[in-house]
Amino acid sequence: MMDTRAFLSALDEAGELLHVTEPVAPRFEVAAHIARHDGQALLFEHLKGYPGWRIAAGYVSQREHFARALGCSKDALMTRMIEALNHPTAPSQVDHAPCQEVITDDVDLTKVPI
To answer: Could you give the percent of the chain with pLDDT greater than 70?
Structure first.
């Protein structure tokens, strides 16, 4: 199974990730784009009022994409999911992860574009 960044890169390389480059408001315009592109993997690159932030959406809304994320074919997806439910694995611990690259003391969750 890939991490989110690697998976988005794989979708992009396959031409299956739509880059939304025009500025969009995260509150309503992002949702409108998601509805308009029904099931398409989207990467919003410019959020109004949130410089430097991006939003990825719909990247596992298609079975093909979900199967790719789990490292199996679309036909093997249900079997893979049942195997995972019946034989769960413990989470792996790592010393360094991309989610730990930005560290700050002044965290303000009201500034997150959700």
So the answer is: 99
21 found inside a domain: yes
Partnered with residue 20 across adjacent β-strands are 44
Q: What is the pTM of this model?
A: 0.80
Range of the domain at 31: 1-74
Q: State the DSSP H helix or E strand holding residue 64, giving kind and residue range, or none if neither.
A: helix 63-70
**Segment (H or E) for 61:** none
How many CB atoms sit inside 10 A of residue 37's CB? Answer: 15
Residue 89 falls within a domain, yes or no?
Answer: no
The domain tally of the chain equals 1
Q: What pLDDT is stored for residue 105 in this prediction?
A: 81
Task: Report helix, strand and coil shares of the chain as percent, to nearest 5.
Answer: 35, 10, 50
Is 39 part of a structural domain of the chain?
Answer: yes
What residues contact 30, with CB distance under 8 A and at least 6 apart? 24, 44, 47, 55, 57
| More confident: 108 or 8 | 8
Residue 101 belongs to a domain: no
